[in-house]
Amino acid sequence: MSASDLTLAGETPDVAPQRRPSRLDGRGTALAAGLIFVTLALLPLLATAIDDQFLLVTATRIMIFALAALSLDLILGYGALVSFGHAAFIGLGAYSVAILAAHGIDDILVQAAVAILVCSLFAFVTGAISLRTKGVYFIMITLAFGQMAYFFMVSLSAYGGDDGITLAARSTLFGAPVLKGNLTFFYVVLAALALAFVALRAVVGSRFGRVLRGTRDNRVRMQAIGFAPFPYQLTAYVIAGAIAGLAGVFLANQAEFVSPAYMSWQRSGELIVMVVLGGMGTLVGPIAGAVAFLLLEDWLAQISEHWKLGLGIFLVLLVLFTRGGIAGFVSRIAGRGTS
């Protein structure tokens, strides 16, 4: 963390450990994100040119998980909080859509508002408890809360239980089926991803974000200069849960099906892999990580039924030989090009 990052309300610049800034910080992040979003925005033209509408479906699914990975990066990359229960927020968001639709409420604005509220409350309660622990204990307690939510949904036989529940149709907007078409739905998800990126970039660049990063780097020193880490970490946890819940709303609409499997600990592990693969603490990294992970998963699944073995080997090699994930690799290449 640079000295300017820790000039917070009168504290001296040398109160926190110095970190060499990444070339993907600031302008580099904006350029990388701009390239990704422009490419995604033009993707429907490619799908039309090659007459492959499934490309839109795949890209939409990738963006939904990129949104969830982006939310996780706020607490994992900037707060050093390893949560193995993050997928619970996706499941809660998805079930908000399914349960409301089962009772005749199919407006996506209402469903999204309820999903965000439910996920925020769940994050506030579980976060207030989990954040009183640290290290492996935090990992285990988030895993426990995630599994509690998973088995609670399994027990809801009125909404499909372990078999899940099928939606009659996608959500509406003021009664109009505007999300029925894959193209419109694609751009709605893209807009949500872009807005979440811009919002989180503002958050991590603010005073709040600097305190969060300072806590990640040296909790004791941040306490010594007068900042209590708990409220900042809890706020970040709630924000991350709310955004992941929105991803769940989109996931339910794309699949038109909701299952407790959305909130399993394996799904949480996949989100962590996406963040690590793309590069923690970069914002643009989780988006790139989601793209790489899901495309690699799809490609390996076409080659062999034992694709998970290949994926595991690839990830091990990535961790061993690539520091900082995809974002770190691009940063080093950019550094060589400008040196």
From TrEMBL:
Show the coiled coil region(s). Answer: none
Disordered: annotated segments = 1-23
Q: Which domain of life is it from?
A: Bacteria
Localization of this protein: Cell membrane
**Which keywords are on file for this protein?**
Cell membrane, Membrane, Transmembrane, Transmembrane helix
What Gene Ontology cellular component terms go with this record? Answer: plasma membrane
Q: What is its main location?
A: membrane
Q: What InterPro entries would the database entry show?
A: ABC_transp_permease, LivM-like
- Membrane-topology annotation of the record: Multi-pass membrane protein
Q: Where are the transmembrane segments?
A: 28-47, 53-72, 79-102, 108-129, 136-159, 184-204, 225-251, 271-296, 308-330
In alphabetical order, the GO MF annotations are: branched-chain amino acid transmembrane transporter activity
Task: Give the protein name, as stated in the record.
Answer: Putative ABC transporter permease protein
